[in-house]
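Run log // design_07
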């Protein structure tokens, strides 16, 4: 059945008019969905009973079901959502001080093939619809107590958002809308490997969001090895499209660099990276690799991380070393889905004092 989340405000107004209902019902319904966190149509108790019944006849509120819900001791919570087709995706709620950030997926799987990432190991299955993307936001919002709000969104879950730009943009408009989640566009981050044509479209159409570009290497030879899609693109084209986005948005860019032990973590790599970023208004986000079961890549040693940081700081690069969150629940991209494939996932909510819902396939120092 159709999800109510497929309808934006004007489409909902149109549907209500077809039903002979006044248009103000749309605002009421959207308040229930986005603000009052309704579980179902029945609970929307300021709507006439007949309208609630008709909504339930025509729509569902949730298309997916929660397959696994896990919570780490640092407050990070992760949902594995299963769609009727059986496809599964992950989304995460991260608590950091006052921030309540959600990390959402844009595709089932991923076609980019980044060699270290769990999400792309089996390629891409399909794009998520905008309703499925919005559903992740609402499901995660429901994990918060009533007096807490979502503050930030990062599209950094499974998939490449620029390969599903239409649906991502519709979903983010709902996140941003006053009558939606009302989250300011500068608190919404689109993270991408950098697909220049799609990035240009974003620049032209909606340069409102914060952009993060996953770089992972300072030169084409290494980047093409780590991010295979780079073979057809090249760093120069990515940087050019990113610069254009910066010009149009006026928002500082973020470059992401997953630090992989003995692969892209040498002082020489840091120097090359500093040269690449010099002169750009950008933040470099260095993320120590989060090991994925079955992959040979390693988290760099603390010494290598320090050396890498030192080289960048010496050269005046604005760099941040990101703390990993939710390691114990496989919160990095695509890991939970993998951990449950071929095993029987534990169902339902795990009590918050418990840390790991599943046997963890990777060990970490
Ligand atoms: N396809 C988009 C968004 C999804 S990945 C992109 O590439 O940006 C989001 C970020 O998580 C990327 O920077 C990616 O490189 C990083 N990532 C993926 N797997 C990781 C892992 N195992 N450890 C650390 N970072 C990882």
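design_07 sequence
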């Amino acid at each position: 059945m159709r999800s109510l989340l497929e309808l934006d405000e004007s489409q909902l107004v149109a549907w209500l008019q077809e039903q002979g209902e006044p248009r103000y019902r749309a605002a009421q319904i959207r308040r229930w969905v986005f603000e009052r966190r309704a579980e179902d149509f029945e609970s929307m108790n300021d709507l006439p009973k007949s309208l609630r019944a008709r909504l339930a006849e025509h729509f569902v509120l949730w298309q997916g079901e929660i397959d696994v819900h896990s919570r780490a001791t640092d407050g990070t919570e992760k949902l594995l959502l299963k769609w009727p087709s059986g496809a599964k995706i992950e989304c995460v709620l991260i608590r950091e001080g006052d921030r309540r950030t959600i990390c959402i997926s844009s595709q089932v799987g991923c076609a980019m093939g980044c060699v270290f990432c769990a999400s792309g190991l089996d390629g891409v299955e399909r794009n998520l619809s905008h309703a499925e993307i919005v559903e992740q936001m609402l499901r995660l919002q429901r994990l918060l107590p009533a007096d807490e709000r979502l503050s930030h969104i990062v599209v950094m879950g499974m998939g490449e958002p620029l390969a599903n730009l239409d649906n991502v943009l519709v979903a983010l408009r709902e996140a941003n809308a006053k009558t939606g989640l009302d989250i300011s566009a500068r608190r919404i981050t689109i993270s991408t490997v950098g697909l220049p044509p799609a990035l240009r479209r974003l620049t032209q159409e909606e340069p409102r969001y914060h952009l993060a570009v996953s770089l992972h290497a300072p030169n084409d030879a290494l980047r093409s090895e780590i991010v295979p899609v780079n073979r057809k693109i090249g760093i120069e084209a990515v940087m050019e499209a990113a610069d254009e986005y910066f010009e149009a948005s006026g928002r500082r860019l973020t470059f992401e660099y997953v630090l992989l032990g003995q692969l892209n973590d040498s002082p020489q790599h840091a120097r090359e990276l500093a040269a690449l970023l010099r002169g750009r208004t950008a933040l470099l986000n260095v993320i120590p690799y989060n090991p994925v079961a079955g992959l040979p890549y390693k988290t760099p040693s603390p010494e290598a991380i320090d050396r890498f940081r030192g080289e960048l700081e010496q050269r005046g690069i604005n760099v941040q070393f990101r703390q990993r969150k939710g390691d114990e629940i496989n919160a990095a991209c695509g890991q939970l889905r993998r951990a449950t494939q071929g095993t029987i996932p534990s169902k339902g909510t795990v009590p918050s004092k418990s840390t790991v819902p599943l046997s963890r396939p990777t060990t970490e120092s």
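The radius of gyration is 21 Å.
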